[in-house]
Each structure stands twice: as structure tokens, then as C-alpha cells.
């Protein structure tokens, strides 16, 4: 990894860039930004498809938390991946040796986003996979 991963404070900027005036992550904006439908975004985050189509469900703590986790991880790798689109591709497809070859996407779906963040922090400090 040639470039350092972003610090937690820098990670907030990507998350904040998708916030609406109510302080919620704007799902249409996230999906559009990554060239996805709401259904594809739901699949990527491990949420039921209808969750992102129903306003009341899209604004729950669980839904917002899962979206935040995904965006935080993408933000951490965006610089060295070559941008947020490439970071999304990494998130969805790159097997992580430290996790038995599972992807960041699979781990977030399992509720293990903190483990991915810890792993990325470890790598940023020069650790090995």
C-alpha cells in the first residue's frame, strides 16, 4: 500500500458528504454516486431490498448504521484504491486473507465492520495481512 489509509476524522468527510439536512445518509445520493440501484445498494450492505425503498425503514438506526459502516470502510481505502469507485470494487470483491478470504462486504453483512476497520488500521501502520 503506497498511500496511507485515512484517519477516522478524514473518514467522516465521505459519510458527511452523503448526509441530508436531517443528519441521515441520503440513500438515493449514495446509490447514484456509485452507479447502483437501491436494490444493488441493499445487497451490498446486506439489507433487505425493501428497506431502502421505504422511507421509515431507510432511516432506522440499523439501516443508517450499516450504510455508515460501508461508507467509512470505503473512505479508508479510497486514496490507495484510486478513488471511491475503485474502493467500492475492493470492498465488494477483494478477498481478505486475515478473514479466510471473505470480503469487506461479507464481513460488514455479518456485523463485523469493526474488525474490518481494525484490520485496515493495522495495515495502515505497516502491519501484514
TrEMBL record:
Stored InterPro entries: Cro/C1-type_HTH, Xre/MbcA/ParS-like_toxin-bd
Occurrences of domain Antitoxin Xre/MbcA/ParS-like toxin-binding (ranges): 79-124
Domain HTH cro/C1-type, chain residue ranges per copy: 34-73
Record's protein name: DUF2384 domain-containing protein
Species per Swiss-Prot/TrEMBL record: Mesorhizobium escarrei
Lineage: Bacteria, Pseudomonadati, Pseudomonadota, Alphaproteobacteria, Hyphomicrobiales
